[in-house]
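Help needed: design a sequence for this.
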C-alpha cells in the first residue's frame, strides 16, 4: 500500500535531502572556519607600490680604521595594509641573499620599520609595522639596508623579503583564520661594487747622500692602509722624481721592501718601470702595512740631499 504524503511535507523532505547531499560532498578533513568580521575585506593583505626592491648605493660615507667603509646599499619599500581585524602586526622574513660565491651574512642587513629613524640589525620575524582595522592604512614604508664588509665578495646578489600580517591579540587571532592572512613576497636585488682603496699621506720624502756611492734609505717609511674586496689588485707608487738641485733620479730606480705577509720577500726589490709595489690574488679585507724606500747612488749621481713627493695608488687587477 502506497502512502500519500501531503504537499506541505514534501518541501520539508526536499530541504533535508539537499542538506544531506551537501554534507556527503564535503572533504573528510574539512574543518569549518570562523568567518572574518565583515569590514569590507575578505582577508588581510599587503599591497606594495612596486613588484621589486632594488638597493642603491648610499652617499653616506663612514670610516673603519682610518679608511672609508664600503658604501651601504639602501632601498625603501612602500606599501599599504588592508585588514578587517581590529589589531595586527606585520612581520618581516628575509630569504638568503645569494651572490656568485654564496649567501651574504644576515648580520650585514639592517631594517628600519615604520616610524623608525635608525635602522636596526635584522632578526627573522621582526615586527616592522603595527596597526588597527578596519580601514586600510595610509601608505607605509620600511627601509632595507645592506652594510657590506671588505671581506664580502663583490657582485650581484638576489633574494626576497616576505611581509606577513599577523593578528596582534588573542581576540583578533580567534577572528582571523590563517587562510585569510595573505603574505607579500618581494624580490630584492643589489650589487656590491668591486673596490680597492689605499689610505696614505701625500708628503715629501728625503734622502741624504753625503758619503759617496752606495745605498741610501729614504725617510720616512710609508705607512698605509689597504682595503680591497677585488679578486685581483695592485698597489703602485706614483709621484715626482727625486731631485737634488738640477739633478733628478726617476722613480723607476727606487728600491722597496714591505713587511710580510703581503710581500713575498722582505728583501730590497727594484721598483721598475711599472712601479708596482704589491699584488694580491683572492685577498680580501683591510691590511695595515709599511713600505720602506731606498736608492742606490753611483758615481754619476750628485751628492747631497734629495727630495721627492710620492703616494700609493690602488688599482683593480
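Sure. Designed sequence:
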Amino acid at each position: 500500500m502506497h502512502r500519500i504524503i501531503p504537499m506541505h511535507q514534501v518541501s520539508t523532505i526536499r530541504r533535508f535531502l539537499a542538506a544531506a547531499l551537501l554534507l556527503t560532498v564535503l572533504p573528510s578533513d574539512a574543518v569549518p572556519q570562523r568567518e572574518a568580521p565583515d569590514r569590507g575585506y575578505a582577508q588581510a593583505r599587503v599591497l606594495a607600490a612596486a613588484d621589486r626592491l632594488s638597493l642603491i648605493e648610499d652617499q653616506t660615507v663612514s670610516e673603519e680604521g682610518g679608511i672609508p667603509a664600503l658604501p651601504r646599499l639602501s632601498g625603501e619599500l612602500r606599501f599599504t595594509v588592508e585588514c578587517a581585524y581590529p589589531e595586527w602586526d606585520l612581520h618581516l622574513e628575509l630569504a638568503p641573499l645569494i651572490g656568485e660565491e654564496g649567501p651574504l651574512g644576515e648580520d650585514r642587513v639592517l631594517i628600519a620599520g615604520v616610524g623608525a629613524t635608525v635602522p636596526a640589525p635584522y632578526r627573522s620575524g621582526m615586527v616592522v609595522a603595527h596597526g588597527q582595522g578596519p580601514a586600510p592604512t595610509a601608505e607605509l614604508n620600511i627601509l632595507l639596508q645592506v652594510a657590506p664588509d671588505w671581506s664580502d665578495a663583490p657582485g650581484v646578489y638576489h633574494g626576497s623579503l616576505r611581509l606577513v600580517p599577523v593578528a596582534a591579540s588573542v581576540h583578533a587571532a580567534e577572528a582571523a583564520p590563517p587562510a585569510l592572512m595573505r603574505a607579500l613576497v618581494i624580490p630584492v636585488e643589489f650589487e656590491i661594487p668591486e673596490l680597492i682603496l689605499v689610505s696614505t699621506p701625500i708628503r715629501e720624502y728625503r734622502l741624504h747622500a753625503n758619503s759617496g756611492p752606495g745605498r741610501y734609505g729614504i725617510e720616512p717609511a710609508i705607512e698605509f692602509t689597504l682595503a680591497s674586496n677585488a679578486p685581483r689588485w695592485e698597489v703602485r707608487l706614483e709621484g715626482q722624481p727625486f731631485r737634488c738641485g738640477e739633478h733628478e733620479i726617476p722613480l723607476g730606480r727606487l728600491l722597496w721592501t714591505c713587511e710580510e705577509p703581503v710581500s713575498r720577500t722582505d728583501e730590497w726589490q727594484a721598483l721598475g718601470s711599472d712601479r708596482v709595489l704589491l699584488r694580491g690574488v683572492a685577498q680580501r679585507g683591510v691590511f695595515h702595512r709599511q713600505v720602506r724606500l731606498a736608492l742606490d747612488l753611483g758615481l754619476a749621481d750628485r751628492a747631497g740631499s734629495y727630495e721627492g713627493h710620492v703616494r700609493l695608488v690602488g688599482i683593480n687587477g
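Residues 197-316 form one domain.
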